[in-house]
């Protein structure tokens, strides 16, 4: 078997992205004990991770066509990270975790098929590599994460319509990834294949600068697998015979929240030529951006700076009250040029900057600068 080593360009692309994320307090990746790695999220990274989770969660629960119920699994499970798994080795652990919820929802809510569960919770890596150095950034560091957050959809449907629902979820999840993407063409879908367990399976993929990796797996489970879990659940819980008509087909959509963070950071990152220089920019979608707006001051007069500080304090409170995430500005950075402020905010992925100057004090009108167009109104 021939092992293909990653190119120097691929390794450097990964290192540069991690370096820029670390510089801007988004995230960093480090090796810890037992050769495992951990993603350490900074303030901006925590906001980004929260925003991605909220969009995933709300897109499912606010679906008007399908009933989905949230399930939080708080006890960490030992699992294989998505990048370590192949299409013919999908585990049935998720089904074991949630099969009891199927009966609870069916009986307590009187919910008929089809319906589903939006399941999320922590996982611990059971397949860690060994003999890894602790002082270098490597492409396979993502494979060795000590823990992560699993995001899953478990969907129960009538067997006769299971294939239609499988294609429905494949399309919906594919469109969801592309919706928040700066470069939608970087997301793709694999062909449908049959696994050794007779599941129908496909992967949603993202093309990073260093390689193409799977982001999400969508599986239509073979009914025999669910029949075994069904019978085991009845025996363990001393439940009498249940009509086979109640036994559904099961579709699962599984991804990792930390992979989603890396995918959207990579997808949104670009180097732009501005004012004769190369500038780093994160073109994060407005709904994913850690902060939606920042404030900048185009003024050097000390007296005006004091007055503008009061304006900034008022604007910050007003925007926060309306639910707009605005980056806190404890210092007006009077020694920082407006150009430097723009570059700093672009590197943090902030879509808009409110620009204040002497005219703002006289007219009450502020400027607005766009990250993506660099136009200032």
TrEMBL record:
UniProt superkingdom: Eukaryota
Family matches, as Pfam families: HGTP_anticodon (PF03129)
Coiled coil: none
Gene3D superfamilies assigned to the protein according to its UniProt record, in alphabetical order: Anticodon-binding domain, Bira Bifunctional Protein, Domain 2
Domain Anticodon-binding per the UniProt entry, residue ranges: 306-375
Chain segments annotated as transmembrane: none
GO BP, sorted A to Z: mitochondrial DNA replication
One GO cellular component term: mitochondrion
InterPro entries: aa-tRNA-synth_II/BPL/LPL, Anticodon-bd, Anticodon-bd_dom_sf, Gly-tRNA_synthase/POLG2
Official protein name in the record: Anticodon-binding domain-containing protein
Organism (species): Larinioides sclopetarius
